[in-house]
Amino acid sequence: MQIALLLIFTFFASICAATEPEDFLAVYARIAKQSDPNFDGFSAARGKGFYFRSYKLDDGSELSCASCHHADPRKFTVAHIDQVPCRACHVTLHKGARGRSAIKREIKPLAPLVNPDRFTNEWQVEFWFDWNCELLLRRQCTPLEKGDFITWLMTIEAD
Ligand code: HEC
Ligand code: HEC
User: Fold this and answer.
1) Distance of alpha carbon 34 from alpha carbon 46, whole angstroms
2) What is the mean pLDDT of residues 128-153?
3) In angstroms, how far is CA 31 from the centroid of its own chain?
4) What is the pLDDT of residues 130-141, one digit of tens each?
5) How open is the CA angle 156-28-77, to the nearest 5 degrees?
6) Does residue 63 register a pLDDT over 90?
7) Distance CA 131, CA 80 (A)
8) 81 CA to middle of ligand 2, Å?
9) Mutate to test the pocket of ligand 1, among 130, 132, 145 (most ligand atoms within 8 A of CB)
10) Which numbered atom of ligand 2 lies nearest the CA of 106?
């Protein structure tokens, strides 16, 4: 896992800094091509399938990317109003945590055309891919999965 991340950051370094979704796609494409010479581009259809695929967790719950980011990734999430899994914001609801367990009151839309801050910060993007992929797939997402995912999100336009 560390090595994979290191590799990814090395590729980022080679294009200076990734500050737009297209930069991330360029980096993932380069790595994907290295591991599979037959790689012929990302697919929005595959990305959509990946987004809605659900995984069974140890606690019996079933989650997909859509569970927290909504079936419509243009949607905004407000704590305790929108129905998303508690764990999206609460690392723990244990009393000992004294109410300090939640990270955010809002989760902004994931679709970059609605929320231009998405896919503009390497650290943030890799941290959350890391976190969410480990939670659902119990492994890192591959550069192909990440590229397909962003490619699909970029087809989603504002209303
Ligand atoms: C349990 C809830 C949850 C699930 C399930 C989930 N996410 Fe997230 N995701 C979050 C939270 C919380 C953040 C950070 C808050 C924010 O960015 O608004 C986040 C942020 C992200 C980001 C950061 C994007 C950016 O540029 O800011 C990416 C990428 C991401 N998620 C990908 C995924 C993928 C891929 C899946 C499915 C495999 C997934 N997420 C499933 C909760 C979730
Ligand atoms: C979008 C983010 C988000 C989601 C989703 C969310 N919460 Fe919260 N929750 C918060 C925030 C932020 C606070 C305030 C925490 C603080 O003051 O540090 C909070 C506070 C709370 C508190 C009181 C303080 C505590 O932590 O004991 C409870 C109880 C709570 N949430 C329960 C839930 C439950 C149950 C769910 C799922 C049904 C849920 N929350 C989903 C963000 C969220």
Assistant:
1) 20
2) 97
3) 18
4) 999 999 999 999
5) 40
6) yes
7) 22
8) 10
9) 132
10) 1
